[in-house]
Design goal:
single chain; six-stranded antiparallel beta sheet; elongated; alpha+beta; 3 helices; 2 domains; 34% strand
Length: 258
């Protein structure tokens, strides 16, 4: 029985180790890298209408607007001419150890974005004479500059990565205005607009070190099968030792003869 368990255990260890090794050699996932450059945009005020404008053409993830020296009770409105964008008061805040970026994961591990407001225009109230508005324009872009996609080969992965960037590009005019009691407030200070732009840099197959992963898998399998073998062996030797002890006691204390 013991030899059979050890033999089966070693066979399974070898088979599963080979499976881990082979799967690390051919991956269906590809890593793509983009620029992750923060740019300060220069705004212009047209015809003295109290609004500031700026036009972008790049693929943009973050778009943050800040203003100072605002009158009490005023409200800043940021609008887009052609692209809806996301915002939330929790953007950039700590979310269970990671930065909140509108990418919540539900119980089924599906991406949801209902936690952020999506619209062509958003308002932000003044606090202590300041407004710091945070938003995300293209949530599909890799906010850290690195993303992963699934594809059959390199050409398919490159095409998907290129499409993801190009779909986020487009001509968009952004406007910023400040109102108080429904009336536009003309201010001498201009809003400061920061955006993070993305351009495709590289695409490469996501690979694991097959030797390292095989050793990790082998160690885990050996540990599991060792526990499967050791526990029955302990029970077997314990029962054998108890049986020998009982036999010795019976031999030392024979039953009385009639």
């Amino acid at each position: 029985m013991l030899r059979t368990m050890i033999g089966l255990g070693m066979t399974l260890i070898l088979l599963l180790s080979y499976a881990v090794y082979s799967n690390t050699l051919d991956s269906e996932y590809y890593r793509f890298e983009t620029t992750n450059e923060e740019v300060v945009l220069a705004t212009v005020e047209l015809d003295g209408d109290g609004k500031w404008y700026v036009t972008t053409t790049s693929a943009i993830s973050w778009l943050n607007v800040s203003m100072e020296n605002l009158p009490e009770g005023s409200e800043m409105t940021v609008s887009s001419s052609s692209t809806p964008f996301y915002t939330s008061e929790s953007l950039g805040a700590d979310n269970a150890g990671r930065m909140f970026t509108c990418k919540d994961i539900d119980e089924d591990f599906e991406l949801i974005v209902e936690s952020c407001d999506l619209a062509f225009s958003h308002e932000s109230l003044e606090t202590n004479g300041m407004v710091e508005f945070k938003s995300i324009v293209a949530i599909e872009l890799p906010l850290g500059g690195v993303g992963y996609i699934e594809a059959d080969d390199y050409d398919g992965a490159f095409e998907k990565a290129t499409d993801r960037i190009s779909e986020a590009e487009g001509i968009t005019t952004w406007s910023v205005e400040v109102r108080k009691s429904g009336e536009i407030v003309n201010l001498s200070d201009t809003p400061e607009i920061h955006v993070v732009t993305h351009e495709l840099v590289s695409v490469e197959e996501f690979k694991l070190d097959p030797i390292t992963e095989t050793l990790y898998g082998l160690a885990s399998l050996i540990g599991c099968f060792t526990m499967m073998i050791v526990v029955p062996m302990i029970a077997y030797f314990s029962s054998m030792a108890r049986q020998k002890k009982e036999d010795r006691l019976r031999a030392e204390n024979p039953p009385p003869k009639d």
